[in-house]
Amino acid sequence: MTTLAILTAAGSGTRLGRDLPKALVELHGFPLVLHAARRLAASGAVDSIVVTAPDGLVGVMADLMAGDPHVGIPVRVTDGGPTRQASVAAGLALARSEDDVVLVHDAARPLVPPELVQRVVSAVRSGHGAVVPGLPVTDTVKQVRPDGDAELVTGTPDRSMLRAVQTPQGFARALLVRAHHTGAERAAAEHLAATDDAGLVEALGEPVHIVPGDAAAFKITTERDLWLASLVLQETTA
Ligand code: C5P
């Protein structure tokens, strides 16, 4: 039995302010999506990868992956969809019957440690149907609702019971397929779509377990995040 990783890379990433999709923005000379693919492969826990590409860029992504000596496992590339949820569904459609475990990882988290990938796959293989890496929340978090030109605080959840979740998220393939099938009508519109795959499993009423995340798997959203990632790489390769 094998593990497939769906690497979501079809977003526009407009908050980075480049005229390039975020996954193709370079960090130390290599696109974010390639850093992420290399780390998935380096885990030794992933057998193949499906990358979801932005409109018109399937060929560019495929050439990038094929030309890289460090990925070393089979990579297929498919068109993404209008939302992250739709992109994952497009990748999932390419899963093979032998892929009993499916990971979903965001190219926007290029520095994911291979050990974290191993941890998630091990937890799924040990019998958990849905596994998400999570970190304790250090900020106090407020729940709000709109109130005129400001927002009104409606609650303060107990911080000790909150986790900030990351990717890769790992699933028994049959469960992930069922979750995406049941939630399919949400996939077309950004305001309805699930922002992570575990959310679709939760909507089924099935359990989702947390394993310890890793600060290095942080998500690149802004120029500052890119700068931080560059510092992290400098430190780890020095
Ligand atoms: O925009 P955000 O950073 O939340 O996107 C998370 C991940 O989902 C990114 O790696 C992005 O490329 C991917 N994505 C996608 N298809 C979309 C939107 C986002 O594959 N339609």
Structure commentary:
The chain is α/β, with parallel strands linked by helices and 238 residues long. It has one domain: Spore Coat Polysaccharide Biosynthesis Protein SpsA, Chain A. It is 31% helix and 25% strand. The radius of gyration is 18 Å and the shape is globular. The model has no long low-confidence stretch (mean pLDDT 96). Cytidine-5'-monophosphate binds next to helix 3.
Short summary:
By secondary structure, this protein is an alpha/beta fold.
Give the SSE layout.
Blueprint: E1 2-8, E2 26-27, E3 30-31, H1 32-42, E4 48-53, H2 58-66, E5 75-79, H3 84-92, E6 99-106, H4 114-125, E7 130-136, E8 143-147, E9 150-155, E10 163-165, E11 169-172, H5 173-182, H6 197-203, E12 209-212, H7 223-237
Parallel strand pairs: 1-4, 1-6, 4-5, 7-12
Antiparallel strand pairs: 2-3, 6-11, 7-10, 7-11, 8-9
Helix pairs in contact: 5-6
Bound molecules: cytidine-5'-monophosphate
* The CATH C-level class name: Alpha Beta
CATH topology: Spore Coat Polysaccharide Biosynthesis Protein SpsA, Chain A
CATH architecture: Alpha-Beta Complex
Number of structural units classed as domains = 1
Termini separation comes to 38 Å
Number of helices: 7
Proportion of strand residues? 15-25%
Q: What does the average pLDDT come to? A: 96
